[in-house]
């Protein structure tokens, strides 16, 4: 039997499979699970245990970003416009959100 803590986590946590690699995306604010107002700007952390990841990535998510501030002349399929799969996975929950990697080089 699965314990209550595993069925209903106290902190937000997602297991991810991105580009054939597995990782854990998690937050440390329990309000993110119950208060929609905390979904404005919040922090998530990502760890995949791969050799190239030397520390947990600290991400800042802004769900009220302004997409019209992006360069309208840039082709969405150009290399400068492509986003890491982790950002795209985050956007499946928070469409249009911007993701700041806070100094960590985006990977995946």
From TrEMBL:
Q: What is its EC number?
A: 3.4.19.12
- Keywords (A to Z) from UniProt: Hydrolase, Protease, Thiol protease, Ubl conjugation pathway
Query: Pfam families this protein is in?
Result: MINDY-3_4_CD
Function recorded in the entry: Hydrolase that can remove 'Lys-48'-linked conjugated ubiquitin from proteins.
One BP annotation, GO: protein K48-linked deubiquitination
Higher taxonomy: Eukaryota, Metazoa, Chordata, Craniata, Vertebrata
| Designated name of the protein | Ubiquitin carboxyl-terminal hydrolase MINDY
Q: Which residues cross the membrane?
A: none
* Domain of life assignment: Eukaryota
Q: Which family does it belong to?
A: Belongs to the MINDY deubiquitinase family. FAM188 subfamily.
What would be an example GO MF term here?
Answer: cysteine-type deubiquitinase activity
Where do the record's region annotations for Disordered lie?
65-84
Q: Which reaction does it catalyse?
A: Thiol-dependent hydrolysis of ester, thioester, amide, peptide and isopeptide bonds formed by the C-terminal Gly of ubiquitin (a 76-residue protein attached to proteins as an intracellular targeting signal)
Q: What class of enzyme is it?
A: hydrolase
Q: Which InterPro entries match?
A: MINDY-3/4_CD, MINY3/4
**Domain Deubiquitinating enzyme MINDY-3/4 conserved: start-end pairs:** 2-103
């Amino acid at each position: 039997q699965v314990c209550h803590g595993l069925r209903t986590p106290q902190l937000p946590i997602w297991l991810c499979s991105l580009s054939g690699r597995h990782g854990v995306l998690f937050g440390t604010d329990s309000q993110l699970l119950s208060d929609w107002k905390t979904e404005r700007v919040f922090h998530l952390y990502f760890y995949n245990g791969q050799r190239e990841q030397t520390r947990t990535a600290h991400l800042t998510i802004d769900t009220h970003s302004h997409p019209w501030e992006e360069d309208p002349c840039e082709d969405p399929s150009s290399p400068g416009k492509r986003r890491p799969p982790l950002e795209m996975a985050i956007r499946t929950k928070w469409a249009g959100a911007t993701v700041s990697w806070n100094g960590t080089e985006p990977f995946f």
